[in-house]
Amino acid sequence: KELAQIEADKLKLIGTIAASTAHEIRNPLTGIKGFIALLSDKYKDDKDQYYFSLIQTEVNRINAIVSELLIIGKPTEASTEIHHVNDVVAEMVPLIESEAHLYNVGLRIELTNESAFVKLSKDHFKQIILNLVKNALEAMEKGGDLSIVTEVSAEFVLLKVTDTGKGMPLEVLEKVFTPFFTMKENGTGLGLLVCKRILDSYGGRLFLLSEVGKGTEATIQLPRVISSP
Ligand code: ADP
Ligand code: MG
């Protein structure tokens, strides 16, 4: 069997499992969250509070993984929304700014003056940008620079997220779209795959250029929609 086919089968299987169990997992989680909240009102001891917060964090993490699995598994329904790439970036600036600040990272944003409309749901677009920004920041533990640039060509709208972080060697770069592949202690190994799956359903692509010790440039490419909405 072709390697690509095996990968596709694997994803399909993950999707089927995720879709059929997501609710079964989420419902009891909601229960757990609720009862932990009740207990944490009752047991005010510092140590107890600390344990409760750990449980909350872990429950949130399971929730996040289940959501990511759902996106990967089900082909996302391509939305017919049309947005200017700059507007979506602008809406996210406050969040990105505060995240960058936490990582001691400088932020540079350069937006195109051209018309740069794409057909993509805003939620999907934000999720892709956020995943790329998170990866960029997590690669810059000792600080650095994050830049977000939008550009157009005749056919495409591009959004580049560039960091001056640790970069990736080829053997990592080759595996970044493998489900659950992560080099991080707390990673899910699903972020880039989520980006790719979403972009796939809109005729978009994701390119990664990386150099160890220098940094990484992640480029989202989407078909350019000529008219404004
Ligand atoms: P996660 O972030 O949960 O590990 P991702 O799918 O987002 O999962 O990324 C997979 C892996 O790719 C990361 O663990 C990391 O090793 C590598 N990676 C992704 N983006 C970058 C980046 N900007 N710089 C360096 N390494 C990266
Ligand atoms: Mg990630």
TrEMBL record:
Compartment(s) of residence: Cell membrane
Domain Histidine kinase intervals: 20-226
Keywords: ATP-binding, Cell membrane, Kinase, Membrane, Nucleotide-binding, Phosphoprotein, Transferase, Transmembrane, Transmembrane helix, Two-component regulatory system
GO MF, one example: ATP binding
UniProt entry tagged with the keyword Nucleotide-binding: yes
Subcellular location, principal: membrane
Record protein name field: histidine kinase
Covered residues, full protein: 277 to 505 of 505
